[in-house]
Amino acid sequence: MILKAIKKDKYLLSTVIISLMVAVLIHFPESVSLFDRFESHTLFPGMQFIDVANEVLFTFLSLLLLFAINTLLFHFNQASIKITGTKILLSFIITWVLSNLLGQGFVFLHKTFDIPAIDAMVHHYLHPLRDFIMACLVTSSCYIIHLIRRQQQVSVENEQLQAENIRNQYEVLKNQLNPHMLFNSLNTLRSLVRENQDKAQDYIQELSRVLRYTLQGNESQSVCLREEMEFVSAYIFLLKMRFENNLQFDIQIDKSYEGYCIPPMSVQVLIENAVKHNEISNRKPLTIHIATDKEGNLSVGNAIQPKWTATPGTGIGLANLAKRYRLLFKKDIQITEDEEFTVSIPLINKEEL
Question: Residue 242 pLDDT more than 90?
Fold first, then answer.
């Protein structure tokens, strides 16, 4: 349980690693002397392995305690807390004093209970210097860890803000589509009510299916191609109710791409764009081609048949779709205009999401 808690808390893990490294390094001269017979008799006479091990263990535990006290008093583990120069100075002084007191306590335990420890005079002379070094290391480590955590928090907050901004932009773009399509559909329905009430009833049924899709997909940023084409089939029914045999569709979708993703209502926008800007009549019927290619794109194209009277655009259609692709997938749609007007949109593998 303790090991799991240490692994989970990166601040605690950092203090444990630093404490262990400092405890070993600060007693490095004694450790080296254990393997040098001449040195062990001159600088550290009578020193045993258990003496060095106890010194390292006590230093390690002391450092952990000093880290804990600093964290409790100054909250170095909280990135939201502002650490001033005064707090750093106080941390250093308190840590230095406590380190000295802990060292004296260890000497007292050694003399009173005969706990193994290093008795060499050189070792005792080095204690004040080691207390100073430990105070510097603990305070500086706490502050550096605090700065790193604060920088990480700022980075996370910036990413969250950026993601929220993208999400908000996407919602604004997506919410433009529903009123736009509803406005066009109601215009068509008004004409059908005047001409053929039976057709109008069928139209209302299919229109309800289409609107249900737009409402159900309102929370989604992407849908699989299979779902989109099921929705498109209902939308095509609405269009054919209006244009009858003057509007035809040639659909060639490779089944291997049916699980790929696109923004909701992408194909519907392209079909609507073709219907809006081209003449559809007995004299000039229009065929809209919908197909996938080997490069993983879906294209919607049609012959260019400009209307005699151009309908003013709303600026939503293709520009909206292009913005949604850039926001969601960092990809662009391709528009080619020659004898045919074709828009190609990338199909996104679910693994890329």
Answer: no
- Strand, coil or helix: 209: helix
Give 192's pLDDT tier (boundaries 50, 70, 90). confident
* Closest residue by Cα to residue 342 from 312, 309, 310, 297: 297
User: Hey, what are 172's tokens?
Assistant: 């604004």
In 3D space, the residue among 109, 95, 105 whose CA is nearest the CA of residue 137 turns out to be: 95
pLDDT in tens, 67-119: 999 999 998 888 888 889 999 999 999 999 999 999 889 888 888 888 888 87
How far apart CA 331 and CA 108 sit, in angstroms, is 71
CB 142 within 8 A of CB 89: no
Three-state DSSP class for residue 175: helix
Question: In angstroms, rounded to a whole number, what is the distance separating the alpha carbons of residues 351 and 353?
Answer: 6
Beta-carbon neighbour count of residue 282 at 10 Å? 8
Contact 126, 120 (CB under 8 A): no
Q: 31, 118 in Cβ contact below 8 A?
A: no
**How would you classify residue 311: left for phi > 0, otherwise alpha for psi between -120 and 50, otherwise beta?**
beta
CA distance 21 to 25: 6
